[in-house]
């Protein structure tokens, strides 16, 4: 996807302001899959959330949210209070629930001090352990109705990521390309490992590939630069040149490090040259 097209899609998402716009955008960009649009939207939402994090997590603001929640619950409305309040302040439902839970625990169990993050995370994952069943229900509704954040979304992302790793593994098997998996490499003492280290290098588009990394997401500039810094260059330092597959597409202009040893694709390459093929050609 060209950067110009990506920016057009992003502008429309900002204009409409909600996930409901994706079907309409899909009609305007028939060459872009719906999964790609979901990935772009989710990444942009994450960036927006990080940018506004400080605004919602000021102590006075957090306490205000908690008091508004208590007032809403006291009115005995049928609709979940936290869902409505989260939308009013333009914050992820799950993050709003976490703020309210933190203030509840601070008031009820920690003498006004912030509760340990581990305790909060455990309750977010299983609200039923709360004695306050109204709050437990409110938190559960926030988690179930949040399409962009929270433990449910995290589980879905992990499942999708694992699914595409299995797809890549099957394609490697079908091409008789031998490899070592991430778990086996960690067992050998490697701290940072790609998904698959090839036991015998291959060539893709005329470039040597020693490892392959699977990303079940769209490759935008922000995420790709972070991956380069935190993962890809580390793989390159340890294992040499490699291939990254962004299964939901990427901005074309980001594929600019081929000569330095990192290729980007949006699918399993079909133009693979195996070492055995090269040896046969020479003989």
Main sheet makeup:
6 strands, mixed
Which geometry do the CA atoms define? elongated
Low-confidence stretches: none
Overall tally of structural domains: 2
What percentage of residues falls in helices of 4 or more residues? 55-70%
Structural class: alpha/beta
Radius of gyration: 23 Å
3D structure, described in words:
- By secondary structure, the protein is of the alpha/beta class.
- It folds into two domains: 3-145, no CATH class; 154-281.
- It has helices spanning 3-16, 22-28, 34-56, 59-74, 81-88, 93-108, 117-125, 133-144, 151-174, 182-187, 221-239, 275-282; strands spanning 179-181, 196-204, 207-215, 242-246, 262-265, 272-273.
- Strands 1, 2, 3, 4, 5 and 6 form a six-stranded mixed β-sheet that branches.
- Helix 2 (22-28) crosses helix 3 (34-56) and helix 5 (81-88) crosses helix 6.
- The protein is elongated.
- The chain starts with a helix and ends with a helix.
- The mean pLDDT is 92.
Summarize the structure.
The protein is α/β, with parallel strands linked by helices and about 280 residues long. The protein is built from 12 helices and 6 strands.
Question: What labels would you give this structure?
Answer:
about 280 residues, alpha/beta, 2 domains, 6-stranded mixed β-sheet, 12 helices, about 55% helix, nucleus
Question: Layout of helices and strands, plus pairs?
Answer:
Elements: H1 3-16, H2 22-28, H3 34-56, H4 59-74, H5 81-88, H6 93-108, H7 117-125, H8 133-144, H9 151-174, E1 179-181, H10 182-187, E2 196-204, E3 207-215, H11 221-239, E4 242-246, E5 262-265, E6 272-273, H12 275-282
Parallel strand pairs: 3-4, 4-5
Antiparallel strand pairs: 1-2, 2-3, 2-6
Helix pairs in contact: 2-3, 4-6, 5-6, 6-8
Subcellular location: Cytoplasm; Nucleus
Pfam families: TPD
GO cellular component, one term: cytoplasm
């Amino acid at each position: 996807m060209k950067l110009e097209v990506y920016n057009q899609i992003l502008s429309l998402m900002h204009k409409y302001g909600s996930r409901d716009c994706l079907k309409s955008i899909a009609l305007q960009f028939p060459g872009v899959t719906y999964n790609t649009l979901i990935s772009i939207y989710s990444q942009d939402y994450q960036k927006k959330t990080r940018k506004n994090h400080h605004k919602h997590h000021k102590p006075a603001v957090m306490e205000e949210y908690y008091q508004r929640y208590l007032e809403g619950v006291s009115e005995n409305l049928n609709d979940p209070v936290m869902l409505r309040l989260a939308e009013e302040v333009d914050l992820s439902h799950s993050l709003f629930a976490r703020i309210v839970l933190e203030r509840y625990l601070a008031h009820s169990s920690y003498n006004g001090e912030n509760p340990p993050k581990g305790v909060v995370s455990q309750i977010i994952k299983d609200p039923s352990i709360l004695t306050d069943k109204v709050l437990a229900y409110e938190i559960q509704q926030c988690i179930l109705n949040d399409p962009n954040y929270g433990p449910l979304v995290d589980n879905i992302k992990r499942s999708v990521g694992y699914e595409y790793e299995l797809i890549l593994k099957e394609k490697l098997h079908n091409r008789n390309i031998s490899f070592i998996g991430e778990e086996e490499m960690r067992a050998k003492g490697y701290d940072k490992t790609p998904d698959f280290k090839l036991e015998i290098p291959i060539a893709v588009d005329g470039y040597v590939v020693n490892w392959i990394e699977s990303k079940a997401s769209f490759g935008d500039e922000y995420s790709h630069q972070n991956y380069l810094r935190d993962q890809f260059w580390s793989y390159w330092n340890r294992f040499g040149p490699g291939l990254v597959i962004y299964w939901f597409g990427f901005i074309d202009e980001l594929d600019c490090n081929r000569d330095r040893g990192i290729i980007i694709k949006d699918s399993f390459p079909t133009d693979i040259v195996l070492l055995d093929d090269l040896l046969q050609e020479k003989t």
